[in-house]
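Supplementary Methods S3. Input chains for the assembly prediction are listed below.
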Amino acid sequence: MVGVFESLHLYHRIDQMGLRGIEIMLKKKKIGVIGMGNMGEALVSGLVHSRSAIPENIICSDIRKDKLKSIKEVYGVVTANNNLDVVKASEIVIYSIKPQIMASILKETAACLDMSKVIISIAAGVPLAAIESCLNKDLRVIRVMPNIAASVKEGAAAIAAGKYVLKDDLKIAKAIFDSVGKSVIIEEELMDTITGLSGSGPAYIFLIVDALADAGVKMGLSREDALFLSSQTVLGAAKLLMETKEHPGKLKDRVTSPGGTAIAALHTLEQGGLRTTLINAVEVATKRSKELGEMMMKNFSEG
Ligand SMILES: NC(=O)c1ccc[n+]([C@@H]2O[C@H](COP(=O)([O-])OP(=O)(O)OC[C@H]3O[C@@H](n4cnc5c(N)ncnc54)[C@H](OP(=O)(O)O)[C@@H]3O)[C@@H](O)[C@H]2O)c1
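Predicted structure tokens for the full assembly:
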């Protein structure tokens, strides 16, 4: 069990040191990653390429030994023969496996889990309470909802703290997810909404880009040009929003000239109910996330 005094002391020190201090701390941490799929590899790649962590301090495992071998070759990280060895060697352990096997992997690694480690779960729909109560011992657990854009270091992640987490744990978790994009710290009760918005969001944008490309093809463009132009348009619009920090409505007003093409198209989009459809989509995805979370909680308590 980590001494509270020691942790508070550490936290004050981190605050004084600020961001640079967190970066230095993260570099010294032993970080375990269980599961080298889409997300696990994205995180390893982000941590290594941003130099947020030292490859020798990253310990990985996966059921697929061929995958593990290639991860070691590409990123120079350490690999372990099993998940328990990852936890044993790490101060922070990222569980990057499917939600359905989260309970069994927690149990498999339980012998080495205690309050000296920080557990980061990115398993969609698995509530903090399920993890905290699974092993009948107090654990420092952080839940994160990242998205697939982490694999190109433009992810959007939301981070929520479990009840035993220290403030410095959250800052370190934020630094980890900032290495693959950008992140915000939220209350867990908003996690289903985050899942409906940014977790599932890339799928909505892929559909929009595909539809715009179809439109371009219909109007005579090659598929290749249409797809490139629609993707680049989404990228550019997002960059403009992020860099200028202008309200999207204001930017929209700037590109709609009186009697012009954009306002004619916007009229059609509103008639088609695009805005309402997107709101409904996020609402339904949020509800579905809640349902899946309840099922997951049941699985955890039964298993
Ligand atoms: N991908 C996303 O966009 C996204 C977004 C938000 C949250 N998440 C969450 O992130 C987590 C990981 O997602 P992902 O897309 O990276 O999944 P994934 O690609 O399936 O990665 C999971 C990896 O863990 C391996 N694995 C399976 N059983 C294992 C075991 N017993 N021990 C160690 N490794 C094992 C899998 O191998 P096999 O392939 O052989 O099973 C796979 O390589 C999930 O909980 C998901 O809910 C994902």
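The pocket of NAP is lined by residues 34-40, 61-64, 67, 83, 96-99, 101, 105, 122-124, 145-148, 199 (CB under 6 Å). The chain is about 60% helix and 10% strand.
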